[in-house]
Design goal:
Blueprint lengths: L3 H21 L1 H20 L15 H15 L1
Helix pairs in contact: 1-2, 2-3
Length: 76
Amino acid sequence: MISPSRFHADALGDLRDFLETTEENPALRAAATFRAMDRLRDALLLIEETASVETPVPLLLQDVALLGRQLLQRLR
C-alpha cells in the first residue's frame, strides 16, 4: 500500500512535470488549455442558474493549475 505522503509527493511531481512540459511545448499548452476550458465549461453547465454561489464545482487539479498559470502569465 502507498503511504498518503508518498502519494501526494508523486501527484505533485506529476503535476510539476505536466506544467513544465506544457511550458516547453506551445502546441501542447494550447491543446491542454482548450481541453481544460472545455471541461470547466461543461462543469459549469451542470450547475443550475439558481444554485448558490457556494455550490462546489468539481475540477481537476491539473486544469486549475494550468488555467491559473495562464492567467498569471497574461497579467505580467
